[in-house]
Amino acid sequence: MRRISFVMAAVLMLGTAASLVAQTSPANAAGFVYVNTQRLLESAPGAVDAQETWNRELVQMQEEVRLKRVELDSLLADYRRQETMLSETARQTRQQEMAEKNQVLQQRTLELEDQANQRRQQLLQPILERVQAEIENFRAERGFTMVFDASAAGLIAADPTLDVTDQVLARLQAQGPASSTQP
Predict the structure, then answer these.
(1) Which end of the chain is more exposed for a tag (fewer CB within 10 A), N or C?
(2) What's the whole-number mean pLDDT along residues 52-63?
(3) Torsion of CA 9, 14, 19, 22, to 10 degrees
(4) Has residue 9 been placed in a domain?
């Protein structure tokens, strides 16, 4: 008897919950929506300026590496032209010099790559924070339980009516650009 009462109570509770869900919007019924954060980050105010700033700085870093590579290539070409005329000691000295310059070039290249990655993160951080804050505000205001990222590898398929990327993007664009992305 108790078991039947428990089952009946559960059925009544599910029925009540179902009727409440039926009265809400389709997205609210699920409590879950998704956004494409990649698209938000690319389209958010200030994103284009940040990308352009990073591209300019990256070109400067690449030019530094290119000039060092040209210098090393020139040393190698000179060495090859003179190799047969050099003494064994002079050849070893030049080879060591080129190896050291090559090592310096490789180290500087890694340093510049790290610097470029850090700079990109620095430029994108304010935009990323605004996007995350706006997603959270949107979620809280609309009463969603969770917001998934459609650009992440975990979301395989979803109802397109649950995509709120355009709504979040409109809210971001209404705020205008983030604080300056310049150094």
Answers:
(1) N
(2) 95
(3) 180
(4) no
The alpha carbon dihedral of 151, 155, 161, 164 has a sign of negative
Q: Model-level pTM greater than 0.70?
A: no
Q: Which of 71, 93, 96, 176 is nearest to 130 (CA)?
A: 176
Tens digits of residue pLDDT in 93-104: 999 999 999 999
Q: Hey, what amino acid is at 26?
A: P
- Can you spell out the DSSP letters for 75-133? HHHHHHHHGGGS-HHHHHHHHHHHHHHHHHHHHHHHHHHHHHHHHHHHHHHHHHHHHHH
Residue 160 pLDDT: 85
Token output for 38: 């990649």
How far from the centroid of its chain's Cα atoms is residue 112's Cα? 19
For 93, the domain range is: 25-175
CB of 167 closer than 8 Å to CB of 39: no
